[in-house]
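User: For a benchmark we're assembling, each entry needs the component sequences followed by a predicted structure for the full assembly. Here are entry 17's components. Please fill in the structure.
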Amino acid sequence: MKTRKLLAIALVAMMGTLSFVGCQKADASSDTIKIGGSFDLTGEAAQYGIATSNGVKLAIDEYNANGGVLGKQIEFILEDNKASQVDATNAFKKLVDNNKVIGFIGSDISSTTETIANLAAEKNIPMITPTGTKLGITTIGPNIFRACYVDPAQGELLAKFATEDLKAQTAAIMINSEQDYSTGIAEAFEAAFTAEGGTVVEKVNYGKNDVDFKPILANIKNANADVVVIPDYYETIATLITQAREIGITSTCIGGDGWDGVTEKTVNNPEVVEGSYFVNHYTVEDDAVIVQDFISNYKATYDAEPNAFAALGYDAAKILIEAIKTCESTEADAITAAMQNTSLDCVTGHITFDENRNPVKSVSVIEIKEGQNTLYKKLDAVK
Amino acid sequence: MDYGILLMQQILNGLHIGSIYALIALGYTMVYGIVKLINFAHGDIMMVGAYIAFMMITAFNLPLPIAIIISMASCALIGMGIEKVAYKPLRNAPRMWALITAIGVSFFLETLFTILFGASSKPFPTLSLAPIQIGALQISQIMMISIGLSVFLMIALELFIKETKLGKAMRAASEDAKAAALMGISVNKTISIAFAIGSALGAIGGILFAMAYPQIKPLMGVMPGLKAFIAAVLGGIGILPGAMLGGFLLGIIESITKGFLSAFWPDASLWADAILFLILILVLLLKPAGILGKNVREKV
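Assistant: Structure for entry 17:
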C-alpha cells in the first residue's frame, strides 16, 4: 500500500514538473507575435462573429504571407465568446494569462465587447473592436479602439440624409428597446432630425424576441410619416418590414449598418425592401484597389461575399498590425500610442482616430434597388 | 383614429399568432396529459418541422401542401423516436429527471440544426398574397389560412380523442396508466401516438409561424415554445380545449397590449410580456388548475 502511495506522489510530482517545463518552454519561444481575438463564433450572434473573425484571419494571413511583422510571424489565437459575457471574460483571461498575447482584436457585438474592454483596460492590452458600436466602449481605457463608427454617428447621418436627400418632414421611429444599438441610433436620429426642422410623429418600442409586429405597426400606419426609421439588425428587419408592407405601409424605410444582409433574407419577397436606404461602412461597389483586392481575396478564401463585418474585421487587424510595425515594439504603451496616430487607407475608408479613439471616416449610403445593395452616395463624417 | 377598428384589427392579429400558439400548446398538453411530462423539446420540434418543410420546398421543389404533409410525418416519427430514446427509459424515475432530459433534448436539437444549417436565419418561402380588405379591416390571406387550418385541426383532434377507440385508450391511459394497462390497453403505443400527434401539430405550427414571419433559424422555437407552454398552463394543462383557449387568449392579450393599449400608453408594448405574465399569475391564483382545469383533490 505504502509503495503505491509513494508511487502516486512521485507520479504527481513528475507531472507537475513536466507541465512546469512545458510552461517555461512556451514562454521562452517568443519567435512569433501573439495576437488574441475572441468573437461570437456560436450562439445568437454567430453570423457576426464568423464574418468578422474571417476578415481578421484574412488580414493576418496576408501579413504572414508577406513575411509577418518585425521579422516574426503573427500567431493569431482565436476564442469563442458564445455571445455570453461569462464566456467572453474567460476567453480574454485565457488569452492574456495563458497565451500571453500582446494585442487583442474583438469582439463583434457591443455587450461582449464592453465586458472585454473593461478587462483589457485593467491589463493594459491594446485592443481594437471591429464592430462594437456602443458609444461608451472606447472611453473605458486609453488602449481601447474601434474600427467602426458609433451608433449616434449613424443616427445623425441618417437624419442629415433624410432631411437633405429625401426631403422628409415627418418621421416615425421603431425602436428595439432591448438593443443599445437600436436605442442609440434612434435617440441620435430624433435629436438631429428635430434640429433640422423635422417632426417625429410616432415612436414605438418592441423587444428583441418579438416576431409579430402587426400590432405595433398599426400605429405606424396611422402616423403616415415620410420616413420610417428602423435601426435594427437585418433578421428582425426582414420580418418586420414584410409585415409592414403587408398591412399597407408605403413610407420609405431607412436604417443603419444592421441592414446589411437584409436583401439575402428577403429573396422571396424583394419588393418589401425595394427603395429603402441605409448607411453602411463600405460597399462592394467601391472601385478602390484596396476594396476590390479585399473582396477578391476574401471570396477566394471563404467562397462568400464579404459583408461589412468582414471588412471591419480586416481593417481592425490591419490597424493593430500597422501600429506594431510603426512603433517597432510589442510593448503595450508604444502600440497604443502608434494606434492613436493611425492614418491608414482601409477597406472601410481612410481611418484616423479622434480623442475618444473612434474612427473618423466617410460612410456609404446604400439604396436597395432591384433586390441589390447599390451605392447611392458617400457622406462625410459628422464631426 | 378609429379605436373600434384598431381594436378589431388587433383582435384579428391576436387570433393569428394565437392560432399558432394553440397548435403548439396542444402538443404540450397532450404529452403532459398522458405522461405528466413537460416536454421542453416541443418548441424545437416546431423548428424541426419548419426546417423540413423548408428543405422540401427549396431543395426538392415540392408544393407547399405536400411539404407540410412530409414535414408532419417526419416530425411525428422524430417525436416518437425522442420519446423512445430519451423519455421512456426514465418513465419510472423521479419526474425531475425526465424534465431535465427534455431540456437536454431541446439543446441537442438546437445545436444539431445549428451545425447542419448554420446559425444564421434562412428566408422561408412565403405566399405573398394581397390582403383582403373588409371595410377598414385588413385580413392577410396567410392569417386566414392559419386560423382556418388550426381550428380545423383542433376540431379533428377533439373528435379523434372523443370518438375513436385510440382516443378512448389515450384518455384512459391519461387517467390511470396502470389500470388502463390492466384493461388491455397498450400504454406504450398510446404514449407513442400522443407524441406523434403532438409533434405533427407542432410541425404545422412551425410552418405557419415561418410563413407568417418568413424566416427560420435554429433558435426560432424557443420563444413560441415558451409562450405555448404558458398558453397550455393558462387554459389548464392536460386539457385539449384549454390549450386552444389559452393559445387564442394569449395571442389576443399580447396583440391588444402591444397595438391597442400603446395608442394610449406608449410604453405598453414594452410591458406586453409583463402584463401577460401578470394575467397568468392572477389566473393561477384564482384557478390553480387553469381556466378550464378542474381542481382535483389529492386523496390522502
